[in-house]
Amino acid sequence: MEKKISVVIPVYNVEKYLAECLDSVIGQSFRDIEIICVNDGSKDGSRDILAAYAKKDSRIVIFDKTNGGLSSARNTGLDAATGKYVLFLDSDDLLHASDALSVLYQKAEDNSLEQLFFDAEVIFENDDVKEKNSNYIDYYKRKNNYEDITAGRELFSMLQSNWDFKPNACMQFFLRSFLTDNELTFCENILHEDEVFTLECVALSKRAAYINMPCLIRRIRDNSIMTTAQKAGSIYGYYYGIRKLIDFAEQHLSIMEEPFAGFYLQRIGVMMELAGRLYYKENETEKKQVAAGIKDRSKFEFAADMLAWEKIVSLKERLQYYITEKKSQQEKLKAAQNKIQNLSEQLKKEKETTAKIRKELSDELNIEKRKLEHIKKSTSYKVGRAVTWAPRKMKRVFKDNKEINKRKVYLIGTPEFGNLGDHMISETELEMLRTIYPMNDIREITMNEYWNVKEHLKEIISENDLLVFHGGGNVGNLWPKSEYIRRDAFSVWYKQKKIVMPQSICFTDDEDGEKELEESRKAYKVPNLLLCCRDEASYRFAQKTFPCDSLYVPDTVMFHKPLLGNREKSIREGAILCLRNDKEKALTEQEKTDIINIVSRKYSKVEELDTVGEKMTRETRKEGLRRFFDRLCAAEIVVTDRLHGMIFCALEGIPCIAMDNSYQKVLGAYKWLETLDYIHYITNVKELSKWIDYSWKENYVYPYKKYREKFEPLLQKLQKQ
Length: 721
What we know:
By secondary structure, the chain is of the alpha/beta class. The chain contains 26 helices and 20 strands.
């Protein structure tokens, strides 16, 4: 009775791996199979293992033959097969999962396939083998997906155009009648037989497909055909394979059939180059010995072909050498130019910073001098000097440290890049600090300035000063530059009062994240440190992880009074999409396309606007924010997965549909805004259709006074500090 699947397994001296291979087959959930094991003259214990398994499972059929090579064994198994479908499996490999055959059978049956491609994963016998054959780590995983059911030639063209075609017979599932009707068999007595077999199959199959999953586990080991150097055998294999493919093409193909003919010839070209490279590395004596092994063709014809292929390889290697050498020289030149440019910019910044600090100190000194001169000219001062002459003489040895000890506030780590959210945070941090401290007592130090003026800051920052660190979403290892500044500052100003403004915390769940978390944990173990968190998850994490005080308050921007105020809906038009395209994005390209399609059905004008743009400084950020809000406030509705995209809409009363980023900080901010009836949070793109048709009111006003009350715990901490 015909089985549904025939699994053909050639066996030759694989006693170490055979049991694992057989177990992966007999353990399949799909039971209606025959397992044809062709013992190709094994000299180890492989035959005994086959016999033992055959006693336990009647589906195993053993064929014994004298050693004739892999192709001969596969052809023997194919002749004996009765299954509707055939799968070739090497005896040192194994099936990937227990449902592999079930998945392949169902896909082939549902689509009436003659040929079904699939992927494979790789295991290495040991680390040494892995190091020598590292090129195989991802070799059997295709880079793209191919969903169409097509003729073999069309599918091959798509695969080869991306170099995703893998000439491996064990990574294909065949309709047996397709192979037998077309008399497709393996070339015997040569290596690289799969190059020929797989190309002939794709040229003749009328219905072929690819399933994007690994169904096979390839074992890379020492002393296999793949890893053993067989120069002469490989050269013969490529040579005879090329001749057979050319003969096959003359019978079955047209040179005018594009793109298939071009890609078919490309594969032949690859084989020519591989053969030429092997031949190129031989000395003259070895080349003559290789030519002497040719049997069925003129030795001179072989030598002429190999000489031509060798020349191609030689020219390619010389060209590659020149390209590599030129690239190396260009990189060295570019590196030198970059170094000069960086040093020039660094020198310029240091000069600007030094001049700025000198001016600030000079301005402060001049102010104090003018105060002193004014006091000295007054009558009360002159009378007081006379009356207090004796007490002053007694106290002359003491210094009045009142002005010296006057507190300064340093806002450290503000941005100089193009993220408008961070620049808005900076503006609001300064606004908040000015409600408590006089403006001339606040010093802003940007990220870039910090490292340039650090040594100077060591001299002027006293124990009485307060250090405030820029907030945002940068505690963690996603945006490490800010974290490095904090760690360094905590160690330098160990005793000073330190406040980290509201933050989201994210350390990735990998080796790098664990390493950086441990470094931060050590750095945050300092006195007088308060870490503010803007979402519940970060707050809980801080309380559990960091050895410092923590506080739960909203994102700093919610303290800000609206920049432009509420605008009438009558002057608003269309929708704005404000979506991420960086390492924090969670949306796929397809989901972004779906969002555009959904929004476009309701709004004829759909504009894309990002909160990240051109680089800004503290001098230009107000103008940059104004330009952004002018565009934002012209929209009827905003769809965003950016935290500050949502908060900006809240400030200006703009209806907003918000989605999360890759580590849920948008949801954390939304918890503070969920009472606003014009800000809605959705968990997936499917929910967008409902809210895009929602009937929004004409006017919404941000209750900023109410939100300022939520910052009272932080304001009290700033005042007490």
